[in-house]
Amino acid sequence: MSITTQSGEQGALRSRQAGVLLHPTSLPGAWDCGDLGSEAFNFVNFLAAAGQKVWQILPLGPTHNDLSPYQSLSAYAGNPELISIEKLVEWGWLAAEQIKKPGKQKKPPLIAKAFAAIMHAEHGEVRNEFEVFVANNSEWLEDYALYRLLKNNHQGKGWFDWPTPLRDRSESALKEVRHNNAEALAEIRFEQFLFQRQWFELKHYANERGISIFGDVPIFVAYDSADVWAHRDGFALDADGRPTVVAGVPPDYFSETGQRWGNPHYDWAQMEQDGFSWWLERMRYQLKLFDLIRIDHFRGFEAYWEVPADEETAINGRWVKAPGDQLFDRLHEEFDPLPVIAEDLGIITEEVEALRLKYGLPGMKILQFAFDSGADNPYLPHNLQRNSVVYTGTHDNNTTLGWFDELSPELQAHIGYYLADQSESMPWLLIRAALASVSRLAIVPMQDLMALDASQRMNTPGTTEGNWGWRFQWSELKEGTAERLNELVIRYGR
After folding, report:
1. What tens digit of pLDDT does each residue of 303-339 get?
2. Domains in the chain: how many in total?
3. Alpha-carbon torsion 303, 377, 401, 255, what sign?
4. What is the b/e burial string over 255-272, where b = at least 16 CB atoms within 10 angstroms of the residue's CB?
5. Residue 10: its pLDDT value, please?
6. FRET partner for 13 with CA separation of 20 to 30 A, picked from 4, 132, 231, 323?
7. Does a cis peptide bond (omega within 30 degrees of 0) precede residue 427?
8. Residue 3 falls within a domain, yes or no?
9. Interatomic CA distance for residues 264 and 160, integer angstroms
10. Is 0.90 topped by the overall pTM?
11. Is 396 a known active-site residue?
12. Is 344 a catalytic residue?
């Protein structure tokens, strides 16, 4: 096993590159959210024209009603809303006339029609491909299909509120469900087959054009998820499947009361006992989907914030040590090099920093955090390190223009003086600073390339309403943006 040294000369970031942060749901299109159809390929073309080498996205899993990709129904499954209906027509699995009102229709009935179509003799090759997919993904797919079916059959209730035999996975009860719902379960598997087929077609297209896909893996999984239901022994739950403590973070920059996420904590002792097999399988699958992975809330591998389940906020929690060294030793044994970026924002102790540096994992630097203190602020461009990813802002931040507009005139003047370039205005002044920095990878949210204001941000941490729905239109992108970005990439050697 070779672990990257603290110098960062090896590892996930081996050359200077630039990229754009945009979740596929934010792509244009006629449906309720962006998907993996033609607009995704158009976006890859835009990235290539702009000299970008990385497309960063958020987690791809199916979401609950709040649409948060960080509280997915599965750590493996893809969001069915990302399936492109137009691709199904292109492949000949749907007739164009079956799509009467794009965006007005719901996707599941159309996906069901495609499923029925490939069951016919003329689609034998596709049917074989589907069967191979089912066999190769059975370890997670069968539990996910059962979970989705049962959730639908119980009016969307979480698994912990199902009848006891189903909640506790009685083998006889599940056998009866499989027997009585064979076709419905097959349709759910087919849905995932479509997602994976479309995803890898898009990824191949991007990779062919020199663009890596930068994925996102939340450290925790949602309580109401197929993963917790199927692997209860790996989580800190009581005999009835209820958590006594939940995940979150203490008060910080984003929230005065902290953030009570509500995810169950891992039973780390149990996971360590079996060699962290759950984590190894999870990472093995994610490394098929992505070229580079950001692990959200990396500090939770050193110590995590444990909140009593009956608390309404995250204030009254405590830090509990986690076996990060042991886990990352195992990950490096299996995957070397390990193409992982550590999301190391928030309350970062010397111990967390030591864990990240031991394994040579690049950290994240946010330029919007750089200017509210003195010259030793670690986010200031002159304090950045090569083995890092620099952002103007992330999906959890305001847009750069929105952020700047809310600052005092004095702080705005200070930033302008520091960046020493009066020929440009925000957000391009900060974009240039990111691209010029020593950080090996510079990422800019699409909103910043479009100079959008605060009303166009993706997420406001600590809130549950009005998030994750942002979308753009190509008509909103100023002409010449790709050329302008490409010029900066060339100038700063990215």
Report:
1. 999 999 999 999 999 999 999 999 999 999 999 889 9
2. 1
3. positive
4. beebbbbbbbbbbbeebe
5. 53
6. 323
7. yes
8. no
9. 13
10. yes
11. yes
12. no
Q: How is residue 33 written in tokens? A: 């959210």
Domain that holds residue 336: 17-491
Helix, strand or coil, per DSSP, at residue 295: strand
How many residues are there in the chain?
494
Please say if 424 is a catalytic residue. Answer: no
Catalytic residue among 216, 343, 344, 448: 343
**Where residue 249 sits, what CATH number does that domain have?**
3.20.20.80
Which residue among 86, 344, 396, 448 is the active-site one? 396
- Domain membership of residue 319 (yes or no) is yes
Two structure tokens written together for 490: 């060339």
**Vertex 18 angle, CA 12 and 23, to 5°:** 90
CB-based contacts of 110, cutoff 8 Å, min separation 6? 85, 88, 94, 98, 99
> Of 39, 143, 216, 296, which residue is the catalytic one?
296
How many angstroms separate the CA atoms of 43 and 56, rounded? 12
Burial class (CB in 10 A: 0-12, 13-18, 19+), 471: middle
Tell me, yes or no, whether 7 lies in a domain. Answer: no
Q: Locate the DSSP E strands across 279-375.
A: 292-296, 303-308, 318-321, 340-342, 363-366
Could you tell me which residues come within 8 angstroms of residue 234 by beta carbon, excluding any fewer than 6 positions away? 266, 267, 270, 271, 278
Residue 173 backbone phi and psi in degrees, to 5: -65, -45
Q: Find tokens 């992330």 and name the residue.
A: 394
Q: Is residue 9 part of a domain?
A: no
